[in-house]
């Protein structure tokens, strides 16, 4: 995690978003850049929760983690989940 990121569940900082905005990318490329940066952050969290190294994660393990986080959100409320949407 970088020093810019103060909230561990913040997947894209304001500074990073501004950097993407200032890039010479098209609108769809900027969306992909934001998605990729956010995905990197999430892929740093999943191994901490599962004990599986990032490079060893499978699509099935990622889906299972997302299902578990979704279940936590339904059962315990949005504040208990990692993903807040």
Protein architecture, described:
By secondary structure, the protein is mainly alpha-helical. It has one domain. It contains three helices and no strands. The protein is globular and about 40 Å long.
Descriptors:
85 residues, 3 helices
Strand content: under 5%
- The arrangement of helices and strands along the chain is HHH
Query: What structural category characterises the helix and strand content?
Result: mainly alpha
What's the number of helices?
Answer: 3
Q: Give the integer mean of the pLDDT values.
A: 90
Question: How many separate domains make up the residues?
Answer: 1
The largest β sheet comes out as: none
- Distance, first to last CA: 21 Å
Please bin the fraction of helical residues: 55-70%
**Which segments are poorly predicted (pLDDT under 50) over 5 or more consecutive residues?**
1-7
Tell me the overall shape: globular
Radius of gyration over all CA atoms, rounded: 14 Å
Number of strands: 0
Short description:
The chain has 3 helices and no strands. With 85 residues, the chain is mainly α.
Q: What is this structure's SSE topology?
A:
Elements: H1 14-21, H2 27-50, H3 59-76
């Amino acid at each position: 995690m970088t020093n810019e990121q103060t909230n561990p569940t913040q997947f894209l900082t304001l500074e990073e978003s501004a950097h993407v905005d200032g890039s010479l990318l098209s609108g769809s490329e900027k969306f992909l850049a934001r998605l990729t940066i956010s995905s990197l952050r999430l892929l740093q969290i999943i191994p901490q929760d599962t004990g599986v190294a990032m490079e060893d994660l499978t699509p099935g393990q990622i889906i299972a983690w997302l299902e578990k986080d979704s279940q936590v959100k339904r059962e315990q409320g949005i504040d208990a989940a990692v993903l807040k949407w």
